[in-house]
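> agent: user asked for a holo structure of the chain below bound to adenosine-5'-triphosphate. Plan: (1) validate sequence alphabet, (2) canonicalize SMILES, (3) run complex prediction with ligand conditioning, (4) return tokens. Step 1... ok. Step 2... ok. Step 3 dispatched.
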Amino acid sequence: MSQEALLNVVDLSIELTDSVPRRTLVRDVSFTVRQGESVGLVGESGSGKSMTVKAAMRLLPRAADATGSIEFEGVSVLDMGRRELARYRSSDVAMIHQDPRAHTNPMQTIGDFLIEGVVSAGLQSKAAAIDRAIGLLDEMGIKDAPRRMAQYPHQLSGGLLQRVMIASALMSEPKLVFADEPTTALDVTVQSEVIAIMVEQIQERGLGMLFITHDLDLAAAVTDSLVVMYAGTVVEKGKAHDIYAGPRHPYTAALLASRPSTTHVKRLVSIPGRPASAYEVPTGCVFAARCPFATELCRSDRPVARELDGRVVACHRAEELTHELKTAASA
Ligand SMILES: Nc1ncnc2c1ncn2[C@@H]1O[C@H](COP(=O)(O)OP(=O)(O)OP(=O)(O)O)[C@@H](O)[C@H]1O
């Protein structure tokens, strides 16, 4: 791929320093998001997706220690000084959160909410910011934008408020957008509409996107590449359509098999066992306890992530299971 790397994460590990022994939450995670590229960070609850994104924004809890490297356009995010970090957070990257209500102030109008960040960071004058906010609300398909600017969050539906959040993320003209489960808090009837608008707006502007979700189907539909995480580690990564068409890690195949089908009736299967956090998994493969294909080797030796047919996979048996995994995923 020729586009420039915006975000480059290499061997990121995150540990909690306030527990004895230290708890590992994320282990040796590496991935890249390029200009104009959408990357899906996919995994069940506790797999470390949010911690990884928090680290990329330098917003980890005080007791969490990040090692490895996170670079934005070649500059180390972990080493940024106060001013550099403020500029990075206010104008290079933006975040769309899960629950729009939790990230708005009920006492602040939509207009003030939209312009606050860029005006206080000195990026735009108040008049220019108001114009831009109205223009963006318009592009988000929000009718009567000037009237909406004067309203308060409780006067907007969840779907409408999430469109405001997308507009807010675009106010500073960022290069990279982190979208953390942006529609899980919304009514199912508006979810796909909001996703479609978000993806369209991000693609039209040629921005990079890191899309965090537990929904592999959705991620495969809206992203170029996937990074599949389990228990704080990357188990598989590669082109979204390749992974969707033929997963090479049993966890990816299980995620695909457990999705509801829209074309035929099938029994909904769930992955047996519960998702584990990085510090809970014993030696061996992180997924061994839930993997139907696990052998003694899988339980004793942790597989090293390696290149396989244009993707990266951390499974001892990836080659020999190619056919089984494809069948299991599409069953
Ligand atoms: N503030 C925190 N302090 C300590 N540990 C935390 C904190 N937040 C999350 N964790 C732990 O870090 C690990 C990774 O959690 P993380 O929230 O990154 O997972 P996730 O994949 O984003 O899951 P979810 O989809 O539920 O948000 C889990 O073991 C979780 O319990």
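> agent: step 4 complete. Summary for user: The pocket of adenosine-5'-triphosphate is lined by residues 16, 25, 43, 45-51, 61, 214, 277 (CB under 6 Å). The chain has one domain: 5-107+152-330.
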